[in-house]
Amino acid sequence: MHSETTKFGQITEAITKEIIEELQKGNVTWSTPFSKAINSGLAKNYVTGRPYTGFNQFYLSFKAATKGYQTPQYLTFKQAQELGGHIRKGEKATVIIFWKVIEQDREAQEKQTRLYPFYYYVFNIDQVDGVTFHILTPPPPSDNQLTNVACQNIVAGYSNGPQITSAAATPYYVPAQDKVNMPPVTSFKTESLYYSVLFHELIHSTGHSSRLDRFQKGVKPAPFGSPEYSKEELIAEIGATFLCGLAGIYPDTRHHNAGYIDNWIDALQRDYTLIITAANHILGLKETNTEELGTVNTNVVTHNMMFKAAS
């Protein structure tokens, strides 16, 4: 498996450098596909209709934005052939990573369970010729009663969520109390902006010890600019973007300023695996908790937030 470890390192480094290059231009590109689409905002397999999960969801949406694809829908080389089409000459595939649980025999016939990455390659439907694809054209995001009901349903779908209070004028999450504070909705320019900020704080709450356990008890929150802080902000940023895409609202851009972007770049340069682990945390994919082909455990809180209320 040494060669697989080397390959994984090479892939994560190449992907991270792509993302850093966009951030250095001031482009927080991962939010673009979601802000443009409601029905087709999540990256999915065109043939099966199944959304990709974890890091794959993040990266395929990122590629759709940077390459200017019309929709974040993908298929494999074989699926394109089965539809009677072919990959356009010169087009390159995008790698996606699935994790499989493999048991290895150790001394004294003990079993050791480990996760190993497996790689697949997909093409956006814009890279395929010879097929007439049928794609719904979603309406643009808006701030109306229907979309805000969708936001409310997502929050309500977080059945094991934190307490939400309105005790201060600043939004924040307190891990020790498992409490999210949100200013009154009337203090925001729109109701949709209120929900996009709330989604950010609720994603932070998935790190509680009763959920994905990212925070250590008794340890003060990491200071601004630290690698730990930057990782947690990436998790909240990307996770909130997913939820906004499902609800059909624009993501909050408070964290798209130069200070945050510089911290993200620094954190990514320190750890080329950071963007993968951050994106996987959003849907509950822990280093010790995954299923074959990377399917996320549907019992984890963030998956329920995203899909239970939206289904």
TrEMBL record:
Residues 162-281 form the Polyvalent protein metallopeptidase domain. Coiled coil: none annotated. InterPro entries: Antirestriction_ArdC (IPR017113), ArdC_N (IPR013610), MPTase-PolyVal (IPR041459). Residues 10-123 form the N-terminal domain. One of its GO terms (molecular function) is single-stranded DNA binding. Signal peptide: none annotated. Pfam families: ArdcN (PF08401), MPTase-PolyVal (PF18818). This is Antirestriction protein ArdC. It comes from Cnuella takakiae.
